[in-house]
Amino acid sequence: MSDVTILFGRPHAPQFAEDRFEIEALAAEELGIEAYAIPLDPVVNGEPERALRRLPRARGRRWLYRGWMLSEEEYSALFEAMQDRGEELVVDPESFAEATYMPNYVPLLGDWTAPTRWTEGEDIREAWEVALELGPPPWIVKDHVKSAKERWYRACFVPEGSGFEDFAEVCDQLLQVRGDRFERGFVVRKYLELATLPGWSSEKRRVTDEHRLVFWEGRLVAHAPYLDVESELSNPGQFEFLGQVLGSPFFTADVARLAGGGYTVIEINDGGSSVLPEQLDPRDLYRVVAV
Q: How far apart are CA 217 and CA 64, in angstroms?
């Protein structure tokens, strides 16, 4: 029996995106790992204690959060509410923030990731000024946590030859898409051309060679293609260093093969809110957690 209990968190409202946490709940049950679910709405609304009322009586458990993405403030409040009941979350708020907010982890990655600049706040002119430090576009624009890559040409990608007005339109669209979940400021990254997968890509859709890596207590413990495609990650050991440069006990890293050869780290994410790829059996992860 594991000394870690899984804490699943979901909003009350139906979601269009499938989170696959039901599959993980079945995996935990199969492996004999305790797991419970809480509603996230009270957490987001500033009442994390109310969200924890459904949990069984406290007995010094260590909880591993698996759920929808929270802000640093929301996660910290959940962490403190768990402490108040005499228990703890495996990932502390500082580690959560390090693996969630790009300005925190980009300096740790060095040349393994794209050149990056960022701002605090929503001033688009300031974002333009720091973007120019990267040289001319193409660039990628996101907030400190997420992009709007589902609206690639309208709210994410700034093509070659773009001027301030073009850039401002992308930034404005990003603000609209992210709404009240826009996190802290703009992040602008130099666009790197990624390798595509023959047989999966077409004129209408480029499928890039991306992989999600899972780290637990400093070790690379699982990985799979980010999309449900046939692709093998060559030499995954080259990324083991990430487990040493990041302090979080549970995080994921998204990496991609570059068109010109080699790999780049696209982003780091808190492990608690990272969706496992289709080809990654959650039992493989939970067997490690259960040790």
A: 12
178-192 mean pLDDT? 94
Separation of first and last alpha carbons in the chain: 8
pLDDT > 90? residue 111 = yes
How far is it, in rounded angstroms, from Cα 219 to Cα 68?
24
Please give the model's pTM, rounded to 2 decimal places.
Answer: 0.92
Q: Which two tokens stand for residue 91?
A: 């990932």
Between CA 226 and CA 233, with CA 227 as vertex, the angle to 5 degrees is: 50
Helix (H, G, I), strand (E, B) or coil at 65: strand
Phi, psi dihedral angles at 60 (to 5 degrees) = 75, 30
Q: Where are the alpha helices (DSSP H) in 179-241?
A: none
Please report where in the chains the tokens 């990324």 appear, as a residue.
239
The pair of three-digit structure tokens given for residue 188, joined into one six-digit string: 């602008």
| Number of folded domains that form the chain | 3
- Domain ranges, residue 262: 193-289
Cβ atoms of 270 and 251 closer than 8 Å = yes
Mention every residue, 6+ apart, whose C-beta is less than 8 A from residue 109: 245, 265, 268
Last residue of a domain, one of 163, 190, 217: 190
Domain boundary among 165, 190, 215: 190
Contacts of 85 (CB under 8 A, 6+ apart): 52, 55, 58
Answer yes or no: do 137 and 165 share one domain. Answer: yes
| Average pLDDT of span 210-238 | 94
**Which contacts (CB < 8 Å, 24+ apart) does range 22-30 have?**
23/282, 24/66, 24/276, 24/282, 24/286, 27/281, 27/282, 27/283, 27/286, 28/282, 28/286, 30/283
The H-or-E segment that residue 269 falls in is strand 263-270
